[in-house]
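Dear colleague,

Following up on Tuesday's group meeting, I ran the structure prediction for the three-component complex that the binding team flagged. I've pasted the input sequences exactly as they went in, so you can double-check that nothing got truncated or mislabelled along the way. The structure tokens for the whole assembly follow below. Feel free to forward this to whoever is handling the docking comparison.

Inputs:
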Amino acid sequence: MSIALSIKDVHVTLGQFEVLRGVSLDAEPGTFVTLLGASGSGKTTLLNVIAGLQQLDSGHVLFDGANVERRPPRKRRVGVVFQSYALFPHMSVGENVAFPLRAARRPAAERRRVVQEMLDLVDLGGMIDRAPASLSGGQRQRVALARALASDPAILLLDEPMAALDKQLRERMQVEIKRIQQQVGITTVAVTHDQAEAMTMSDLVAIMHEGQLVQVDSPENLYRRPVDEYVASFLGEANLFPADRHGPLPVDSGAPATGTAVVRPEDLVVLDAGQLGDRWHVRGVVRLLSFQGSRFRLEVTTPAGRSVVCSLPPHTDAGALLPGSEVTLGCADPDRVHVIHPAAVGEQLKLAA
Amino acid sequence: MTMEQALAAPATTRRRRPMADGAAAERRWLLWPPLVFFLLTVAGPVVALVQQALSGEGNAFAESLRMEVFVDSVWRTLLLAAVVTVATVVVGTCYAFAIAVGPVWVKALLMGGLLISLWTSVMVRTIGWMLLELPTGALFWVLELLHLRSEPIDFYQSTAAMYPAMIAVMLPFAVLPVLASVIGFDREQLKAATVFGAGPLLTLGAVVLPAIRQAMISGGVLVFVMSLGFYVTPLLLGGPANMTMSGIINGQLNTANRADVGAAMSLLLVGGTVAIYLVADRLFKVSERWG
Amino acid sequence: MTDSPLRRSLGWYRLPILVVALVTSLLFYVPFLVVVATSWTETSYIIFPPDGFSLQSYSGVLNDWEWMDAFKVSLRVAGLGTVISVALGTLGALALTRLRSRTARSWVRTLFIVPMAIPPVAYAVGLYSVSLRAEALQDNLALLVLGEALLAVPYVFVMVSSGLSQADPALRPVASTLGAAWPMVIWRVDLPMIVGHMLAGAVFAFAVIFDEVVLSVFLTPIGVKTLPLQMLTASQEELSPQLTAASTLVSMLAVALLGGYSLFSNRRAARARRLSRKAATA
């Protein structure tokens, strides 16, 4: 059974530092929410607030509409996977998973049944008597997940769940966690600073910056329509150009700008002289071209020293783009250019053709 | 042995493997001075003790073990060390926890007490206990003030008088390892225990104590072994009726004039103590925690 | 730090723990305070509560050649013993980091800690028997200094090892791949990292030797006394306020020196932390 999570205007001060400055967030039952932000943005504090491990200065936390901010952690029915996994080193895998049930004084037979069920769910059915120290990082994470789910929690909290894993394993576990989350159907809040991880796993990504939520949206909307420069450059690579109401201004023109255009590297193409017309474009000198498997990455410097990054398809003719050669870049599809307008945040403006 | 091999190795191989031989030379220079020192300061006295023990007419070892005062003192010392160990470990663990979780003023007070105990000499502390326990000492003054007692107390130089003092003397050795272990304890494990619904008792019993057990044992072994050699505190506070092995040995040398028996007893005491430490060390890895 | 996880986990159980600990701390404070209080009595014998307030027993101690001589002897023994034990304990701790075999390491560790377990009386008797056999060692403090140094080696070893274990183990191989011979690695890489721990070990060793009484009972030449021995003798005679005045003086000295030292080293550690934080955020 999963719950709807609602956070209303939460403030937290640690020492003299205001870590959370009015955070509000709503999630439907069964949603996978990821809190994404740089270290020190307050995301782990927010997770602790939901778990009940952190006192609030003000604000509310609601599980299915009921205030829980006065409820101690053990009565909140939360399951947490900690960053270090925090498996108890002197207990076996089975004893670790059984711990929440032991704390709830469940009968031994039920404990045995649930432990087996949980370990089967995370594919560790045969490891019940192993010591945590003898497991690999990925296996430990699965044990931590099984333990978090053992007491049938209402909400699952993941604190940087992939931080201790290497890249390949990380990608596999992201899919795996998503599968288990969907199978159990549990409302989940994860904390991460890895944007790819956030994009892969979440229904909803909340970008945190200096104790506030900057934008809460689906991964695609965040990428396509960031509300400000911070979100734009935090989530994936972005080229930011000065813009006015009509779209990006001629580069290095010094014309007065009222907003910022976000152009993703994969939306830039190399233009021939004939294609130019009166389209918006950027001229510059190639500084570096690197092959990255599925794409080429091209770095260009404009005469005024602005750096532009461009991602090109693999069939690009690399010979024409040697460092030092002149190149002109333009937008493949003007509709994909998003303009951040401080006056009218999120307003989508079309680029005049 | 590796050193001898290195020395015996022909010069050519030595030049071919400069790293390995550098390491051997390094180890030699680092280890030999302390080893020679240990040999001189430990083996010298032991050999001298053996010689002296064999210098009398009879078998001094057998004679020691037949002496009732000595055998009694062995049991008394063992009992005393055991009581002091259990008490210091239990109380010391509480003390360490209190430093870790107490409010700031408690923390300061407790650390202050610990430091006074570490920084002032055993002599001074024992003198303090003497003055406290004398028939008309400070304790009597307090009791009189509270109208609990009007005649001088008959407490000084009794078994009960020496225990609190010895526990106080040994307590820092039990507190320090536990304190290091408690302060260094993984906070996420505690958070996990809380989140998964464990109350204080389950958290303590199933999560915290297993993790600090090793530190408690290390402190306990050290306290036990050091208590076996106790001399000054029992001498001044326990009186002649509570002679420890050390006290008896001193008596053999200075009063009974039986240097051979004293030497035999010393060997038994040193041998027994070191043996106990070595066994405990192999069982519980005590040295690894300290070193 | 009001939200410490351990505090929350213990819940109300921390009350009895605090009470036990606070009562226990009386075991540390009360005897010490009694010593201090009795030292300022105006009487020529010890009495509690003290009668009046005077510093006469302090001036008595400071003008008494017996107490002052004992103090000087103790300083000398502790100073020499500390030098020896710091040198040997540091060598041992350095050797420990350079041993590869697990068994060798565990034996070296045991060897350097086991002197803590040696019963001082039995050891003193042993050293005394040595002095009976070697005339050169009679009538001087050589054996006492050596014996005290042995008893203090474990403290230095523990401190320095803990310092070395905090150091980055990659530094030494790095230095040797850069062409430094092992004495230079020790001098330029290891020692600068552990000099603070060596100092702490030295302070500890000095305190241990300065306070040790049993070895002096057996090993001081006739007419020479260390300070703790002088105290022991005085405590077995008629108790005079001079004894507690001397105890107070030496304790104050220890508290001042050790407290000053730990304040100094704490401040240094705090400065190092600040610097590294600054470097990390810059």
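Residues 174 and 180 of chain C are 9 Å apart (CA to CA).

Cheers,
M.
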